[in-house]
Structure formats: structure tokens, C-alpha cells
Amino acid sequence: MPSVVQGNAGDIALVKQGMVAEHVETESLYRKLTFRLIPFLFVCWVINYIDRVNIGFAKIPLSKDLGLSDAAYGFGVGIFFVGYILFEVPSNVLMERIGARQTITRIMVLWGVISCSLAFITSPMQFYIARMLLGAAEAGFYPGIILYLTYWFPSGRRARITSRFLLAIAVSGIVGGPVSGWILHNMVGTLGLRNWQWLFLLEGMPAIIAGIIAYFYLDNGPADARWLSEYEREIITRNLMMDESEKSQGHGHRFVHLLRDPRVYLVILGYTTVPLIGTVLNYWTATIIRQSGIGNIWHIGLLSAIPFVVGATAMLINAWHSDRTLERRWHYFFATFVGAVGCVLLTYFSDQWVMAIACLCLIGVAYFCGTGTFWTIPPAYFNGAAAATGIAMISSLGQFGSLLAPMLLGWLKTHTNSISGGLYVIAAISVLGGAAIALGVPRHALRERRLE
């Protein structure tokens, strides 16, 4: 009898050793994936975000040279999202057919060329056209990367992986603000070009270079990755298949099925909050800091990095806790509520630079925590081929806030010399969007698998 017990104990010990060994191998594999994919995608996203929002720093000299009012500037910022909205879903659908490598290369090279071309605009109309074309060129990059990450990482790792990728937004603010300020401050009239022309040229060319590198560096998926062993591919595939088995089978793969799902519209309403808050942070931070009493554009660039540092730190903590608890909805509501508080307080402290930056930090926390948490929700809700269309559809329709908010803020700034009214609207929509996710999407609808 003791020998039997001893034998059973030995078998159990062997099983435990095997499980520990497999766990170690799996962790090593996902570290390998992270180090291979995230740094490059991180750099691409930094370049993308700097190209998209450097207009916020170019605003002061560009508006003077082209005769742009705040309303016209807001229209130019907003019209970017017309092209973005129109081409986002087709881009993700095309990516499913031709692969991530060609898609990301196409997007980056096109947006780099158009970003550089902004250096040569001479009228408000050319400004509007270039901004709309830039939006069309960039369409599909962000949702494409979110979709691309689902080809490699299971749901239990996704918030942390997404947050690491989205740290690029913070880095673009931390690096882009001071760099843009330095270019504008030091390259006035260099080689006969204005400082804002140098801004667009120097910050647009890296996208072209990175796009070419992407074609040779990225793989369409694990099956094409020669740097993975057959066993490693099997682990990745098995984990992703286990993810799919956890998801509800009620979400159709066709676009028309998504349109009939009322919960999709609640998710879209929830996501609208993120671009709205991002509009304040990305396009009006420099203006807000300047009006709070800081006049030197180099100092404005340095101070503009602070909300990004605070927001990035909060995002990492929020994402870690969200993955640990596998709770997404209330983590998202927390972010939107903090953003609403920041917007409301900013209307009272816009003329005090320390308090104004503190309010921008709250908005930064909302933007980064909200973005990092939100993009774990659609992949957990949609299954199979519906993920590509669903992610792009949510990202695309959610951008209507980005289309309208800059125009509203610009119009208010021109006619009332204040954006306070717009900040109140954004605060209200932020709370509403957070509630739509927290209360409108049941927890059981988000099928995620806890890591062992």
C-alpha cells in the first residue's frame, strides 16, 4: 500500500514538474514575442502620433503665416478624421486579406509623404486638403495594430501588451513636445524655410523610413515567423484557440451582423469618450499652457510632456490591475470620470499655469487609462473574423468625437475667447461614455481566459 501511495505521489510530482516547465517555456516565449514585436511597433506608433498631433505645436506660427483663426485651425484638425473614418474599416478588412506587413508599410509610407508635404502648404484650403489626406493615409494603422496583436497574444496578456504599445502615445508627448518646441525655437529661417516647415519635414521623414523597414521586419502572423520554432507556434495557436472557445458564439462574422447588434453601439458610444479627451490633450495642450502664462515656445514644449508622463504611469498601474482582476468595464469608467473632473476643473484654473497643468494631468490619466483598458474589450467581445471588422468599425465611428470636438473648441475660442463651454460638453460625454461601458456591457459578454 505505501508503495502505491509513493508511486502516485511520484506521478503527481512529475506532472507538477511538467506543468512548471511548460509555464516557464510559455513565459519565455511571450517575452520573446514582446521583445520582437513591441519595440518596433512602439517606435512606429511614436512616429505616427507625433505626425498626427505636431499641428498643435505648429499652430502658433502656422496660423500667423496662413491667416488661420482658431475656428479655421479647429476645422483643419477635425477634418483629419473625415478621411480617417472613411478608410478605417476598409483598411482593416484589406489587412485580413493581404496581411499586416504590406498594410503597415503602405500606411506608413503614405502618411510620411503627406506629412512632409504639409511643409509646402500656402493657404487654408491646402491645409484642409492635406489634413484630410493625412487622415485617409493613417486610417487603419491603430486598429490594424490592435488587430495584429490579437494574432500573437491571448486575452489574459492583452491589457499589459496593449498598454506597453500605447506607452508610445506618452513617449510621443514626452519626446514630441520638447523636440517640436526645439525645432520651432531654433530653426527659424534656416535654409530659407520657416520653422513650422522644418517641423513637418523632420518629423515626417521617419515614417517613410520605418514603413520600408516594416516590410522586411514584420511577419503577417505566427505561421510566417521563421524566428519561431514549430513548438512555439503550437503554443501560440493553442492559447489563441482556447481564447476563441471562451467567447460567445453569437457575434456574426459579417458586417451586417455587427450593425444589428445593439451592444456594439454602446461600445462605440463608450469609445467616443477617448478621442474627445484626446482632442484636449493632443491639440490644445500647447495653447492652454500658453494662455496660462507661459510665453516661451521651448518651455511650452517641455511643460507639455508632464501630462503624458503622469498619464503613462497611471496607465501601467491601471492595466496591471485590470489584467490581474480580468475586470475591464469599471476600470474604464474610472478613467472617464477622472477625465471629466479634469475638464471641469480646467475651466476654473485656465489662467494659473501650475493648476492648468495639474488639470491636464488628470485628462492625461483619463486618456491613457481609458485607451489602454478599452482596447481589451472589443477583442474579448468579438470572435473570429468579426474581430477585424468590429475593431475597425468601433475605432472608425468612435472618431466622430475627434471630428466634431476640435471644430467646437476652435469655434468657441474664436467667438468667446474661451473653450470652457466645450470642456463642459466633453466632461458630460465622458461620464456618459464610461457608464455605457460599465452598465451597458455585461461582464459575461466579455469572454476572457485567466492565465494559469
Please provide a written account of the structure.
This protein has 452 residues and is an all-alpha fold. It has a single domain, classed as Up-down Bundle (Growth Hormone, Chain: A). Helices cover 81% and strands 0% of the residues. It has helices at residues 2-53, 55-66, 70-98, 100-117, 124-138, 141-150, 158-186, 195-217, 230-246, 255-259, 262-283, 285-291, 297-303, 306-325, 329-348, 353-374, 377-381, 386-398, 400-416, 420-440. The longest helix has 52 residues, at 2-53. The model is unreliable at 1-6 (pLDDT under 50).
Q: Rg from C-alpha positions?
A: 23 Å
Overall shape: it is globular
Query: In whole angstroms, how far apart are the ends?
Result: 34 Å
Largest sheet: none
Could you name the CATH class? Mainly Alpha
Number of strands: 0
Instruction: Examine the coordinates and then state which fold CATH places here, giving the name of the CATH topology.
Output: Growth Hormone, Chain: A
Helix-and-strand structural type: mainly alpha
Give the total of domains. 1
